[in-house]
Amino acid sequence: GWHVRRASLGTGASDAQLADLVGREMGRRLDRSRPLWELTIVDGLVDGRVAVLSKMHHALVDGVAAVDIGTVLLDPGPEPLELPPPEVEWEPKPYDRSRHLTRLGMTPAFVARKLIRESGRRALTPDPRRAAKELLGATELLTELARTKPNAPMTTLNRSIGPNRRYAFHRVELAVLKAAGKAAGGTVNDAILAVVAGMLRRALPELPNTPRPVALVPVSVRAPGEEGGNRISTVLVELPIGTGDPAACIREIHASTQKLKDSATVRAGALLVNASGWAPPLISSSLAWAMSNVRAFNVVVSNVPGPQQPFYIAGSRLLGAYPAVPLNPSTQGLTVGVLSYDGGVHFGLLADRDLEPSLEVVAGALRASVDALLAGG
Hints:
Structural class: alpha/beta
Order of helices and strands: EHEEHHHHEHHEEHHHEEEEEH
Shape: globular
Low-confidence stretches: 108-126, 268-284
Mean pLDDT: 80
Largest sheet: 6 strands, mixed
Number of helices: 11
Number of strands: 11
């Protein structure tokens, strides 16, 4: 009754009105005294459409896990699946740190299992100074990797932000983005980053070409078959905004991302996620503080692959799935969420309410960047 809600936009509401509602909801913090998720059913949209707005705290899931949960709520066909009620009423189990560490130690990881078990043993040590030293060392490793990059340029996107949000969304055909990336010698992911580069070039014309703006791009380090939780590392990608040629932009991005895929940054992030999974809140706050101090990036671009077959809910087809990536730390005024689903690439822009330039300008720049990429110039 608390977590599943309903909102009505009246009759014949537009996508812009839906985006306004999403922005307001994303500006409202989840109740910390309850499980950190909410689901809002939104009716009143034009053509009889209904929206489902899902909010899940990043402490519970990363983007890939959030998509997995979404597919559980949906049906693979128009006929709803018959789900029998559970035999016994569900009750939460108390948190057992030893059980958690045992399971963590048995999980296939990107580092040796012995290292994970040793990390767990150190976490249980009665000496808090030793555990704190281990955490500090891991945090300093990532901080130092960030410092090896030149500071990202100061932009209007990186001023202090307030608590309120605005939201905008846009859909592009996956096939055409794939074709554009392939034609330029890159991938669909390179094409998506080129779209973001073109968006920034149009929305921030005063932005200098050197140093280039930097995007923080989460990278999944999830082991095969692993479900739930947060299993991400990050890379920092410089966006070439000085050229108006989308193909050249894709080629530059492809060259730089190829070097980053097996970089020390990804390996260090995987090490931290896998070996130090016993204290995610402390790690997250430490990294947020460290990264904010060096201004290592200007914008977050989170690209999550989703299912390419249609899904349904109560017999109605899911037409689109648009992500909203929270703003963090306090000087990040814009995030770009990207989710592919059923032949489409869905962009979701979440911004501080008082972002300069306005989110309306940024969303227009995104659409113009997509048009230019598809037109080849």
